[in-house]
Design goal:
With 154 residues, the protein is an alpha+beta fold. The protein has 4 helices and 8 strands; from the N terminus they run βαββββαββααβ. Strands 1, 2, 3, 4, 5, 6, 7 and 8 form an 8-stranded antiparallel beta sheet that branches.
Amino acid sequence: MNLRPRMLSKKEEMEKIINEAQVCYLGMSKDNNPYVLPMNFAYDAETFYLHSAPESHKLEVLKANPNVCININTGNELFHRHKEVGCSWGMKFKSLNVFGKAGFIDEYAEKYRVMQLFMVKFSGESYEFSEPSIRNVAIIKVTVEKMTGKVYGY
């Protein structure tokens, strides 16, 4: 086991973690107040997609301040070198921080395409959607401006 943190520099390494994860944590801020939510996501071509009800507090926050940080964390596993020594315990992990600006997708065909990405990610299959289900979902788009990653214990 590698017990030194390793910074990730290759896009392929980071995208492997993205593909392993089912949940991300969306960090936002409005009026200097932080707000973080766990969310399902889809990823395609250096872009994260999130979906929401068409009216929500998170949409208000993002419209006021589009700067976001998305955190993804996988592979969490507790370990110890010596069970009886408390400071020898640790947590293995694979973690990313993604920085970008949130925008919104309003075009019907693009919303449909993105919802297909979600279904393929979570079910491995493509599904059809009714027109009302697409019209009544908000799609948040975050294009990656900067991505950093760290792995510990792997």
